[in-house]
Amino acid sequence: MKQDLILVTGASGTVGTELIRLLKAEGHKIRATTSKTPKDASSVHVNLATGEGIREAFEGVDKVFLLSPPGYADQYKMLSPMIQEAKRRGVKKVVLMTAMGANASDETPFRRAEIELEKSGLTYNIVRPNWFMENFNTFWIQGIREHGKILLPAGKAKTSFIDAKDISAVIAKLLTTDKFDNKDFDLTGPQALDHDEVAKAISDVTGKKIVYQEIQPNELKVGLLAAGLPADYTEFLLAILGFLREGYSARTTTSVKDILGRAPGDIKQYAQAHKQAWL
Length: 279
Ligand SMILES: NC(=O)c1ccc[n+]([C@@H]2O[C@H](COP(=O)([O-])OP(=O)(O)OC[C@H]3O[C@@H](n4cnc5c(N)ncnc54)[C@H](OP(=O)(O)O)[C@@H]3O)[C@@H](O)[C@H]2O)c1
Hints:
Strand content: 5-15%
CATH class of one domain: Alpha Beta
Number of helices: 11
Order of helices and strands: EHEEHEHEHEHEHEHEHHHH
Structural class: alpha/beta
Mean pLDDT: 97
Radius of gyration: 19 Å
Strand order of the largest sheet: 3-2-1-4-5-6-8
Low-confidence stretches: none
Bound molecules: NADP nicotinamide-adenine-dinucleotide phosphate
Shape: globular
CATH architecture of one domain: 3-Layer(aba) Sandwich
Protein backbone atom coordinates (compact mmCIF):
# COMPACT_ATOMS: atom_id res chain seq x y z
CA MET A 1 0.00 0.00 0.00
CA LYS A 2 1.29 3.50 -0.89
CA GLN A 3 2.43 5.47 2.13
CA ASP A 4 0.79 8.88 2.69
CA LEU A 5 2.89 11.98 2.00
CA ILE A 6 2.28 14.55 4.75
CA LEU A 7 2.92 18.26 4.09
CA VAL A 8 4.03 20.06 7.29
CA THR A 9 3.98 23.87 7.55
CA GLY A 10 5.98 25.64 10.26
CA ALA A 11 8.31 22.66 10.02
CA SER A 12 11.29 24.30 11.76
CA GLY A 13 9.16 25.74 14.57
CA THR A 14 8.31 24.64 18.10
CA VAL A 15 5.36 22.43 17.12
CA GLY A 16 6.60 21.44 13.67
CA THR A 17 10.04 20.15 14.71
CA GLU A 18 8.62 17.69 17.21
CA LEU A 19 5.74 16.78 14.89
CA ILE A 20 8.18 15.81 12.13
CA ARG A 21 10.32 13.83 14.60
CA LEU A 22 7.27 11.85 15.71
CA LEU A 23 5.95 11.22 12.19
CA LYS A 24 9.36 10.13 10.92
CA ALA A 25 9.82 7.81 13.90
CA GLU A 26 6.60 6.09 12.82
CA GLY A 27 7.93 5.77 9.27
CA HIS A 28 5.72 8.41 7.60
CA LYS A 29 6.80 10.37 4.53
CA ILE A 30 7.16 14.11 5.15
CA ARG A 31 7.41 17.22 3.01
CA ALA A 32 8.48 20.19 5.16
CA THR A 33 7.78 23.77 4.12
CA THR A 34 10.12 26.68 4.77
CA SER A 35 9.93 30.35 3.82
CA LYS A 36 13.73 30.22 3.50
CA THR A 37 15.86 28.27 1.01
CA PRO A 38 15.11 24.54 1.37
CA LYS A 39 18.07 22.58 2.76
CA ASP A 40 17.24 19.14 1.33
CA ALA A 41 14.95 17.28 -1.04
CA SER A 42 12.27 16.70 1.61
CA SER A 43 11.82 20.49 2.05
CA VAL A 44 10.02 22.96 -0.20
CA HIS A 45 9.87 26.73 -0.28
CA VAL A 46 6.47 28.13 0.69
CA ASN A 47 5.90 31.73 1.72
CA LEU A 48 2.45 31.94 3.26
CA ALA A 49 2.66 35.76 3.31
CA THR A 50 2.88 35.90 -0.50
CA GLY A 51 1.44 32.53 -1.56
CA GLU A 52 4.71 31.67 -3.28
CA GLY A 53 5.31 27.93 -3.71
CA ILE A 54 1.89 26.71 -2.54
CA ARG A 55 0.79 24.93 -5.72
CA GLU A 56 4.13 23.13 -6.14
CA ALA A 57 4.23 22.10 -2.47
CA PHE A 58 0.95 20.18 -2.81
CA GLU A 59 2.17 17.97 -5.67
CA GLY A 60 1.48 14.34 -4.65
CA VAL A 61 0.51 15.32 -1.09
CA ASP A 62 -2.05 13.20 0.81
CA LYS A 63 -2.40 15.02 4.14
CA VAL A 64 -1.54 18.48 5.48
CA PHE A 65 -0.66 20.08 8.79
CA LEU A 66 -1.36 23.79 8.66
CA LEU A 67 -0.44 26.70 10.92
CA SER A 68 -0.09 30.46 10.54
CA PRO A 69 3.40 31.70 11.52
CA PRO A 70 3.59 34.19 14.39
CA GLY A 71 4.12 37.79 13.33
CA TYR A 72 1.14 37.92 10.96
CA ALA A 73 -2.08 39.27 12.43
CA ASP A 74 -4.30 38.32 9.47
CA GLN A 75 -4.13 34.55 9.88
CA TYR A 76 -7.01 34.08 7.42
CA LYS A 77 -4.92 35.61 4.65
CA MET A 78 -2.06 33.20 5.49
CA LEU A 79 -4.21 30.07 5.76
CA SER A 80 -6.96 30.47 3.17
CA PRO A 81 -4.81 29.87 0.03
CA MET A 82 -3.55 26.62 1.62
CA ILE A 83 -7.10 25.48 2.42
CA GLN A 84 -8.20 26.38 -1.12
CA GLU A 85 -5.31 24.40 -2.63
CA ALA A 86 -6.04 21.43 -0.34
CA LYS A 87 -9.64 21.52 -1.58
CA ARG A 88 -8.62 21.80 -5.23
CA ARG A 89 -6.38 18.75 -4.82
CA GLY A 90 -8.91 16.81 -2.72
CA VAL A 91 -6.34 15.81 -0.08
CA LYS A 92 -7.32 13.09 2.40
CA LYS A 93 -7.10 15.27 5.52
CA VAL A 94 -6.10 18.71 6.82
CA VAL A 95 -5.18 19.29 10.47
CA LEU A 96 -5.28 23.01 11.28
CA MET A 97 -3.79 24.57 14.43
CA THR A 98 -5.27 27.89 15.55
CA ALA A 99 -5.43 29.00 19.22
CA MET A 100 -7.74 28.51 22.18
CA GLY A 101 -10.40 31.22 22.11
CA ALA A 102 -10.24 31.60 18.32
CA ASN A 103 -13.86 30.45 18.02
CA ALA A 104 -15.18 33.03 20.51
CA SER A 105 -16.24 35.10 17.50
CA ASP A 106 -16.83 34.09 13.87
CA GLU A 107 -15.15 37.32 12.75
CA THR A 108 -11.57 36.66 13.94
CA PRO A 109 -9.13 35.81 11.13
CA PHE A 110 -8.31 32.46 12.79
CA ARG A 111 -12.01 31.54 13.07
CA ARG A 112 -12.67 32.54 9.46
CA ALA A 113 -9.96 30.04 8.42
CA GLU A 114 -11.51 27.37 10.66
CA ILE A 115 -14.94 27.95 9.10
CA GLU A 116 -13.49 27.77 5.60
CA LEU A 117 -11.94 24.40 6.42
CA GLU A 118 -15.11 23.12 8.13
CA LYS A 119 -17.14 24.01 5.04
CA SER A 120 -14.58 22.76 2.52
CA GLY A 121 -15.90 19.21 2.37
CA LEU A 122 -12.40 17.97 3.27
CA THR A 123 -11.80 15.63 6.18
CA TYR A 124 -10.25 17.76 8.92
CA ASN A 125 -9.31 18.35 12.53
CA ILE A 126 -8.91 21.70 14.22
CA VAL A 127 -6.71 22.00 17.32
CA ARG A 128 -6.79 25.12 19.47
CA PRO A 129 -3.94 25.02 21.97
CA ASN A 130 -3.82 27.29 24.98
CA TRP A 131 -0.68 29.38 25.72
CA PHE A 132 2.47 27.29 25.24
CA MET A 133 4.77 26.61 28.21
CA GLU A 134 7.57 27.05 25.64
CA ASN A 135 6.94 30.82 25.57
CA PHE A 136 9.03 30.97 28.76
CA ASN A 137 12.09 29.61 26.95
CA THR A 138 11.43 31.62 23.75
CA PHE A 139 9.36 34.83 23.69
CA TRP A 140 9.68 35.76 27.39
CA ILE A 141 13.22 34.44 27.95
CA GLN A 142 15.10 37.73 27.92
CA GLY A 143 13.51 39.08 31.13
CA ILE A 144 14.09 35.73 32.87
CA ARG A 145 17.75 35.42 31.88
CA GLU A 146 18.75 39.06 32.27
CA HIS A 147 16.61 40.19 35.22
CA GLY A 148 15.27 36.98 36.81
CA LYS A 149 11.78 38.21 36.00
CA ILE A 150 8.77 37.09 34.02
CA LEU A 151 7.57 40.51 32.87
CA LEU A 152 3.99 40.38 31.60
CA PRO A 153 0.66 42.23 31.91
CA ALA A 154 -1.03 39.04 33.12
CA GLY A 155 -2.38 40.08 36.52
CA LYS A 156 -3.02 37.18 38.88
CA ALA A 157 -4.95 35.20 36.28
CA LYS A 158 -4.46 31.49 35.90
CA THR A 159 -3.67 29.85 32.55
CA SER A 160 -3.77 26.15 31.69
CA PHE A 161 -0.42 26.31 29.86
CA ILE A 162 0.32 23.36 27.56
CA ASP A 163 3.65 21.73 26.74
CA ALA A 164 4.03 22.12 22.96
CA LYS A 165 5.38 18.55 22.79
CA ASP A 166 1.87 17.39 23.66
CA ILE A 167 0.42 19.54 20.88
CA SER A 168 2.79 17.90 18.38
CA ALA A 169 1.87 14.44 19.69
CA VAL A 170 -1.84 15.18 19.33
CA ILE A 171 -1.37 16.47 15.78
CA ALA A 172 0.73 13.41 14.83
CA LYS A 173 -2.07 11.18 16.13
CA LEU A 174 -4.82 13.11 14.32
CA LEU A 175 -2.88 12.94 11.04
CA THR A 176 -2.55 9.18 11.27
CA THR A 177 -5.93 7.99 12.55
CA ASP A 178 -9.49 8.49 11.33
CA LYS A 179 -10.93 7.97 14.82
CA PHE A 180 -11.45 11.69 15.49
CA ASP A 181 -12.26 12.92 11.96
CA ASN A 182 -14.03 16.28 11.58
CA LYS A 183 -13.73 17.17 15.24
CA ASP A 184 -12.17 20.22 16.90
CA PHE A 185 -10.26 20.21 20.16
CA ASP A 186 -9.20 22.84 22.70
CA LEU A 187 -5.83 21.62 24.01
CA THR A 188 -4.63 22.52 27.52
CA GLY A 189 -2.15 21.37 30.08
CA PRO A 190 -3.25 19.47 33.19
CA GLN A 191 -3.77 22.46 35.50
CA ALA A 192 -4.26 26.22 35.52
CA LEU A 193 -1.36 28.18 37.02
CA ASP A 194 -0.69 31.85 37.59
CA HIS A 195 2.65 33.37 36.63
CA ASP A 196 3.94 33.27 40.23
CA GLU A 197 3.57 29.48 40.07
CA VAL A 198 5.40 29.33 36.74
CA ALA A 199 8.22 31.48 38.19
CA LYS A 200 8.47 29.08 41.14
CA ALA A 201 8.70 26.04 38.84
CA ILE A 202 11.57 27.69 36.93
CA SER A 203 13.26 28.77 40.19
CA ASP A 204 13.02 25.24 41.60
CA VAL A 205 14.83 23.58 38.67
CA THR A 206 17.41 26.30 38.07
CA GLY A 207 18.17 27.20 41.68
CA LYS A 208 17.91 30.85 40.54
CA LYS A 209 15.43 33.30 42.03
CA ILE A 210 12.91 33.95 39.26
CA VAL A 211 9.84 36.07 40.01
CA TYR A 212 6.78 37.25 38.14
CA GLN A 213 6.45 41.00 37.90
CA GLU A 214 3.29 42.47 36.45
CA ILE A 215 3.87 45.23 33.91
CA GLN A 216 1.43 47.50 32.11
CA PRO A 217 0.31 46.48 28.60
CA ASN A 218 1.91 49.63 27.22
CA GLU A 219 5.33 48.65 28.62
CA LEU A 220 5.11 45.34 26.79
CA LYS A 221 3.93 47.10 23.66
CA VAL A 222 7.00 49.37 23.67
CA GLY A 223 9.26 46.34 24.13
CA LEU A 224 7.60 44.29 21.37
CA LEU A 225 7.73 47.16 18.89
CA ALA A 226 11.38 47.81 19.78
CA ALA A 227 12.07 44.11 19.13
CA GLY A 228 10.73 44.59 15.62
CA LEU A 229 7.25 43.04 15.86
CA PRO A 230 4.79 44.50 13.35
CA ALA A 231 2.31 46.97 14.92
CA ASP A 232 -0.79 44.92 14.01
CA TYR A 233 0.68 41.70 15.46
CA THR A 234 1.70 43.58 18.61
CA GLU A 235 -1.93 44.73 19.01
CA PHE A 236 -3.11 41.13 18.47
CA LEU A 237 -0.75 39.87 21.21
CA LEU A 238 -1.85 42.60 23.63
CA ALA A 239 -5.50 41.78 22.94
CA ILE A 240 -5.10 38.07 23.66
CA LEU A 241 -2.98 38.81 26.74
CA GLY A 242 -5.92 40.96 27.85
CA PHE A 243 -8.19 37.89 27.56
CA LEU A 244 -5.64 35.90 29.58
CA ARG A 245 -5.63 38.61 32.29
CA GLU A 246 -9.45 38.44 32.41
CA GLY A 247 -9.25 34.71 33.18
CA TYR A 248 -10.37 33.33 29.80
CA SER A 249 -7.29 31.07 29.51
CA ALA A 250 -7.83 29.19 32.77
CA ARG A 251 -10.14 26.44 31.50
CA THR A 252 -8.71 22.90 31.33
CA THR A 253 -9.91 20.24 28.90
CA THR A 254 -9.41 16.47 28.70
CA SER A 255 -8.59 16.57 24.96
CA VAL A 256 -4.91 15.56 25.22
CA LYS A 257 -5.82 12.53 27.35
CA ASP A 258 -8.81 11.69 25.14
CA ILE A 259 -6.62 11.62 22.03
CA LEU A 260 -3.32 10.27 23.37
CA GLY A 261 -4.60 8.07 26.19
CA ARG A 262 -2.19 9.74 28.64
CA ALA A 263 -2.17 12.94 30.68
CA PRO A 264 -0.47 16.07 29.31
CA GLY A 265 2.91 17.06 30.77
CA ASP A 266 2.95 19.49 33.69
CA ILE A 267 5.00 22.62 34.37
CA LYS A 268 7.56 20.76 36.50
CA GLN A 269 8.35 18.32 33.69
CA TYR A 270 8.53 21.20 31.21
CA ALA A 271 10.84 23.25 33.45
CA GLN A 272 13.13 20.27 34.01
CA ALA A 273 13.36 19.57 30.26
CA HIS A 274 14.23 23.21 29.44
CA LYS A 275 16.40 23.99 32.47
CA GLN A 276 19.48 24.83 30.36
CA ALA A 277 17.66 27.69 28.63
CA TRP A 278 17.50 29.75 31.84
CA LEU A 279 20.96 29.04 33.28
N1 LIG B 1 2.94 30.43 21.52
C1 LIG B 1 1.75 30.24 22.04
O1 LIG B 1 1.53 30.37 23.25
C2 LIG B 1 0.60 29.84 21.14
C3 LIG B 1 -0.63 29.49 21.71
C4 LIG B 1 -1.68 29.10 20.87
C5 LIG B 1 -1.49 29.06 19.50
N2 LIG B 1 -0.28 29.42 18.98
C6 LIG B 1 -0.12 29.40 17.52
O2 LIG B 1 0.97 28.57 17.17
C7 LIG B 1 1.48 29.01 15.91
C8 LIG B 1 2.99 29.06 15.99
O3 LIG B 1 3.51 27.75 16.16
P1 LIG B 1 5.02 27.52 16.58
O4 LIG B 1 5.26 28.22 17.89
O5 LIG B 1 5.31 26.09 16.46
O6 LIG B 1 5.79 28.35 15.47
P2 LIG B 1 7.28 28.93 15.55
O7 LIG B 1 8.15 28.09 16.43
O8 LIG B 1 7.20 30.39 15.81
O9 LIG B 1 7.75 28.71 14.07
C9 LIG B 1 7.16 29.43 13.02
C10 LIG B 1 7.34 28.62 11.74
O10 LIG B 1 6.74 29.33 10.65
C11 LIG B 1 7.65 29.33 9.56
N3 LIG B 1 7.43 30.59 8.84
C12 LIG B 1 7.81 31.83 9.24
N4 LIG B 1 7.42 32.73 8.32
C13 LIG B 1 6.79 32.05 7.32
C14 LIG B 1 6.16 32.43 6.11
N5 LIG B 1 6.11 33.69 5.71
N6 LIG B 1 5.62 31.45 5.34
C15 LIG B 1 5.69 30.16 5.72
N7 LIG B 1 6.25 29.73 6.87
C16 LIG B 1 6.80 30.69 7.67
C17 LIG B 1 9.03 29.19 10.16
O11 LIG B 1 9.87 28.44 9.31
P3 LIG B 1 10.88 29.11 8.25
O12 LIG B 1 11.63 30.19 8.99
O13 LIG B 1 11.74 27.94 7.86
O14 LIG B 1 10.01 29.59 7.17
C18 LIG B 1 8.77 28.35 11.41
O15 LIG B 1 8.88 26.97 11.12
C19 LIG B 1 0.84 30.36 15.60
O16 LIG B 1 -0.19 30.20 14.66
C20 LIG B 1 0.27 30.77 16.94
O17 LIG B 1 -0.86 31.61 16.84
C21 LIG B 1 0.77 29.79 19.75
